[in-house]
Amino acid sequence: MTLTVTRTLKLQQNLFSTRTLSLSLLKSLSSISRERKPEDQDRREFAEEAKTHNSNLLLVHENREILTMDLDDYTIIKEGEAEILMHNKNKVFFNKAQVHNRDLSIAVLRTFISKRKEEHEARLSRRTKPVKKASEKDASGSSKPAADNEKSNGECEEKVSEKDALGSAAEEVTNERAEDNEKLNGECEVPEEITEDRPCSLTEEQMMTTERKSQGVLEPPRVLEALSASGLRALRYAREVEGIGQVVALDNDKDSVEACRRNIKFNGSIAISKVESHLADARVYMLTHPKEFDVVDLDPYGSPSIFLDSAVQSVADGGLLMCTATDMAVLCGGNGEVCYSKYGSYPLRGKYCHEMALRILLASIESHANRYKRYIVPVLSVQIDFYVRVFVRIYTSASAMKNTPLKLSYVYQCIGCDSFHLQPIGRTISKNNSVRYLPGFGPAVPQECSDCGKKFNMGGPIWSAPIHDQEWVSSILGGVKCMKDRYPAYDHISAVLTSVSEELPDVPLFLSLHNLCATLKCTSPQAVIFRSAVINAGYRISGTHVNPLGLKSDAPMHVIWDIMRCWVKIHPVKAQAPDQPGSVILAKEPVLQANFARAVASLSKAQAKKVARFLPNPERHWGPKLRAGRQITSKHVSLLGPEAVNGHLNHENGEEEEPEAKRQKTEDVETPMSIS
């Protein structure tokens, strides 16, 4: 009986101490809020205090809403200026390696907002010029119409002046549409009802809206993150990008939406005011919101192909579509038939396969956009880590859409020497200020390779137009360097952007110097020597961000092989079988005599300054992670690493043992009570 009373008193004391601790935490939080400390500092101090006392985490917000949870089940992850609570059971997907993706997206989004503002100001300046000319013409006219106007204005001055202002605004917008056929985000649209008679008295809100539209005020860009998961990307957009508008985060998984809403509240008033989370199918949501978002971000787990059709409809004219594809095995030729079914293009397994993956994705987006009289303009396309990421602007124009066949090509790759040739799909003929669109001439190659005599594989179609806008790349890189402290992955994204800025923009795909030497079974020349030979022959050459050994050049393949023949004459090789591709190539005499003297432009500016362009992974197991909801087992060691797998398994074992211990304590307490 004494033992029972003692244990009962201990339980009551524990309950009393827990309630006292909760009250003390609430009091401390209220005192912190009264002192009005910075939002991040307030949240961090309270989380640390709750952790110290091993209690529940209480999140109190401006709307006095209280959210309780067990800190042992969550990990606080900070990236940039955003912090999220991640559940330990892999309920919601999160990959640390995607910090490169998120940082680069923020950099592009900042540049997009500044470019959008410049374009809007340029349109306003063009719009005011016709108005000035019209006013000068009216001033030089007779005074009688002016007197009539003064008389009519006396009857209902407010009404007529309002109608004139709105009518002129509508007329300007109509003229602008007729001139450009392209409408940018935020451009004012004048509704039909402004041409009708309306009462002289208007509400204040209607007057403000009308005034903003008539003045052409640029609204902040609206962003849609179609597949948000934890919401980290949307939170970083809202907290770090200046001048951004509403950010809509979607997901069709209940756990992900709950996690996103929890993280929105956890990040304070800025996130609460700008970010909203919805449980919805991204495809349906985008289809039901056509041209409503200035920026649409697609970052799926795998292929984005099923989202492209609705995404190109949801982006406003002149808006930005950011798209990621992680199914690199499909895009790089591992499953060509699957790639064709998803993207409408057949990949080839060459050294340039990762760049070809970028171009296949761009061609697929263009194909979906063309169905709605729209077309794309790529501003940045990169291959990073284990995925490709493209940033394209989308415009609407039935006439400009006709140029799409000029931007697409088929690729012929030799199965013997890996030489490749492009076959454009379309061509144009200009005559008497008119343009005719015709199919491209072909074939671009004979049945057998002219260099080694082997057959060709055919792939494509791919996007053969430029995949970057060099002006945009320079602006993005400059912005990143000016704000290096605000990018957690600054070193990596600045290295990628530096490599992109030095690429030849109008040369599709690239060569591999090591692959050329492997075909001939010869020693490899230094990249500087090979570059010099190409430059001395009168052609251009550059590196590529996709492969540190890749070389882009506008030199035709027969010139490349002539340079290699001259190199082999200086550095002889052993005799090979006569039917080998290398033997067939070396059996021909070079037409071009290569000059291997060091050229001035053989090194890029970054190489001359020894700027790092290809960095190693920040840590081991830096790559794709397990899909959310799947159970982590020992077979995922190669993917996640032994530490992460063992830590997760130990955590699960501890959870299994905990209920048994609790049951044992309960039995010890309840047994004496039943005896008494």
TrEMBL record:
Q: Which reaction does it catalyse?
A: O-phospho-L-threonyl-[protein] + H2O = L-threonyl-[protein] + phosphate; O-phospho-L-seryl-[protein] + H2O = L-seryl-[protein] + phosphate
What is this protein's name? Serine/threonine-protein phosphatase
Q: Which Pfam families match?
A: Kelch_KLHDC2_KLHL20_DRC7 (PF24681), Metallophos (PF00149), STPPase_N (PF16891)
The UniProt entry, under InterPro entries, shows:
Calcineurin-like_PHP, Kelch-typ_b-propeller, Metallo-depent_PP-like, Ser/Thr-sp_prot-phosphatase, Ser/Thr_prot_Pase_BSU1, STPPase_N
Q: Which UniProt keywords apply?
A: Hydrolase, Kelch repeat, Manganese, Metal-binding, Nucleus, Protein phosphatase, Repeat
What does this protein's record comment on cofactor binding?
A: Binds 2 manganese ions per subunit.
Give this protein's Gene Ontology molecular function annotations.
metal ion binding; protein serine/threonine phosphatase activity
One GO BP annotation of this record: brassinosteroid mediated signaling pathway
Its EC number is 3.1.3.16
Native source organism of the sequence: Manihot esculenta (Cassava)
- Gene Ontology annotations for the cellular component aspect, listed alphabetically: nucleus; plasma membrane
Q: Record's family?
A: Belongs to the PPP phosphatase family. BSU subfamily.
| Required co-factors | Mn(2+)
The cellular location(s) given in this protein's UniProt record come to:
Nucleus
